[in-house]
Amino acid sequence: MSRDPENLILKYGILGSSYPQGVKGEEIGFYRSWKPYLIQAGFYHFLLGLESYLEFQKKLSLLSEEKVGVSLALACMVEVNVAGGILAQAKEGNTSHTKKSEESSDSLWDAFREENPVQIFAVGVSEPGWETKLRKLSSKVQDGKLSGTKSFITNGGEADTIFWVTKADEGNPVYLVRRKVQEPTDLKLNSNEADPRTQIQEEFFHTDFTPQVSHLKLSLCEYPISSQDLVLRNYGNLGLTLRLKELLSLVSLLIGKTKKISLEVESVAKEREKLIAWREVFLSNLKGNPSGDFLLSGFPYPIEGLLATLTEYWNLSSPKELKTIDPDFQLFVWEDQFTQYLIQKKKRKL
Q: What GO molecular function annotation could you give as one example from this UniProt entry (predicted)?
């Protein structure tokens, strides 16, 4: 007989705390303190080809049933969908790697299967004034030096490595930027090399919703880059696919977040069950990684009914006011420029 999955927050968490038991979470970070437990529970099995995307989504929903779990599910799903999506694309599309670069790329996957040491990846795409257009990115590599600013890097405050999307004459290469730089006694530089510790300016911040998740604004000035740091030759249309995966995962977070209220309010329960059934039908026959075309076929994802029912139950004027009940609801009603672009793109296809 199979056992029902356990909620990690209930199993390992501490009442009134955002961190697991027996861990100095405030010193090591929110996501970093929980990631070993996520690895043990198989949250990265989808990336490793061990389970379906639907099973990953179900795990996110279960995690999101607890308040702290919404933040943890967001941190996890961004790393899996975006950083993991870049690695999967690199593994599939880059066929001209050297043996050394192949070994380096393969070692990156350890972040999703090794509990010690914990490694966290984040992705830098958004820049000031880029308007969701890759052609407007200003980050570039010139003469082996990377310069640019990324304005909103989710998980960035805890990340060991940033996957940095740049602009080049042909395409948008992605490079690895390592934040954990060696100590001065271990750092050996040639006379013509810049000290990478002086090339980084960081600004950490949190949002009102999912406040445990760390975000980062990061500026680089002539940060040393080598050919071994190239992880993906062209980000290109991959961005659309990754954003759709994030939006689909938000469906799963909403399913989890509304579990408790659904036990008390029949109308909410009905709409929530409709959403669960839709997800089951949409993803049940999916094999492997969902493509952009597949994800776009179901977009926009049908969360309006559940949000409208919640709005009516709490006697609010619009779903945007749900944030007055709980700031985390902003996750489900906020539309950035890229989401608006996807909506217009889908309308053109109809």
A: oxidoreductase activity, acting on the CH-CH group of donors
The two tokens of residue 349 are 């296809």
At 243-284, the pLDDT tens digits run: 999 999 999 999 999 999 999 999 999 999 999 999 999 999
How does pLDDT run across 319-331, given as a tens digit for each residue? 999 999 999 999 9
Where does a domain end: 232, 257, 274?
232
Greatest Cα pair distance in the chain:
70
- Number of domains, the chain: 3
pLDDT of the residue at 275: 98
Distance in Å from the first CA to the final CA of the chain: 46
Q: How many CB atoms lie within 10 A of CB 171?
A: 14
The Cα 255–Cα 271 span in angstroms is: 10
Q: Is residue 104 part of a domain?
A: no
Q: Give the CATH number for residue 221.
A: 2.40.110.10
Report CA dihedral (83, 242, 86, 79) to the nearest 10 degrees: 10
